[in-house]
Design brief:
Oligomer: single chain
Number of strands: 7
Strand content: 25-35%
Largest sheet: 7 strands, mixed
Order of helices and strands: EHHHEEEHEHEE
CATH superfamily: Gcn5-related N-acetyltransferase (GNAT)
Distance between the termini: 33 Å
Strand order of the largest sheet: 1-2-3-4-5-7-6
Structural class: alpha+beta
Radius of gyration: 15 Å
Helix content: 25-40%
Length: about 160
């Protein structure tokens, strides 16, 4: 198995990252119309990519297979994105990205990270220590509620 490397995203990768987000969302079996309604929310610009808060995962020397984005200011931030290419699901990429994001958030002084999860991904986040704190309306699909989750982070050492 190839080694997964996590590194900061680069501005010029924004189109690749946006396309990956849509492919990843499609993993849950949503219709083309549903995915099109989500396109704007799942589009990332060059500034977000070079913000220093977005990291990508790649098989060493190969294409990007996942990414994560943290937004907000301490003490409470948001895990605004964590997407894995469907071809990389089951490789440990998602776990590595989540652990990296939580570690980065802790070292940057966050006490907690919140997220609005896709219902299909909720068990993944709960498995790694998130707690469900409520529901949040979807920014893309009127009337749809998403699980709102929170990770409580340790104090930085």
């Amino acid at each position: 198995m190839e080694r997964i490397v996590i590194r900061k995203a680069r501005a010029e990768e924004h189109e690749v990252i946006s396309a990956l987000a849509l492919r990843s969302k499609g993993h849950w079996g949503y219709s083309a119309d549903f995915l099109e309604a989500c396109r704007a929310e799942l589009t990332y610009d060059a500034e977000e990519c070079e913000s220093g808060r977005m990291w990508v995962a790649e098989f060493e020397g190969a294409d990007i297979v996942g990414f994560t984005l943290i937004t907000g200011a301490p003490p409470t931030g948001e895990l605004a994105a964590l997407f894995v290419d469907p071809l990389a699901i089951g490789t440990g990429c998602g776990k590595m990205l989540l652990q990296h994001a939580l570690s980065q958030a802790t070292s940057r002084g966050y006490a907690r990270l919140t997220l609005d999860a896709d219902p299909g991904a909720e068990p993944f986040y709960l498995h790694f220590g998130a707690t469900r704190t409520g529901s949040s309306p979807s920014a893309s699909i009127p009337g749809r509620l998403l699980p709102q989750l929170t990770f409580s982070l340790p104090s930085p050492s």
